[in-house]
Amino acid sequence: MMTKLAKIDAVHLKAATAVIEPLFARACDRRSGHSHAAEKMSTKPTVAEFEDDWKKAQAARRAYLAG
Question: Model-level pTM?
Answer without folding.
Answer: 0.69
